[in-house]
Amino acid sequence: MSSPKPLQLAANNFTANDSVLVSSLPASIENLTKLRTISIPHHLLLGEIQAAIRRLSSLQVLELQGNNFSGAIPRQLRTDPFEAEVNQIVGSIPPKIGSLKKFKRLELSKNRLSGSLLDQLGEIKELKRILLEENNLT
User: For this UniProt entry, which residues form the secretion signal (predicted)?
Assistant: First the structure.
């Protein structure tokens, strides 16, 4: 049996009628339960991240920067890194992130996040990079 491959669609130029494709992740992506990496930066994808990754229990890397995803940060977030800067993500940073003791990268700049920064972020010993500028965090 072959090992699962990452879904990497960076540096493509998907087009529809000579314009950039504006779409959402297909609902069928949740059937790829052994998928470990999703890397789809800069494609103007829409929709909620939570709905797209709900059943992806093996997902380890989630790179969605430069799209137009909306909704909240997924409650079941367990990927490292989680890169979703320059989207339309709203709400607060889930407290569960503070319990991910080996979490290394959280990049959520230029979204619509609000609320307080979690005290627990300071407890993540291996955190190397956190980008949260241009949000409404306090």
Answer: none
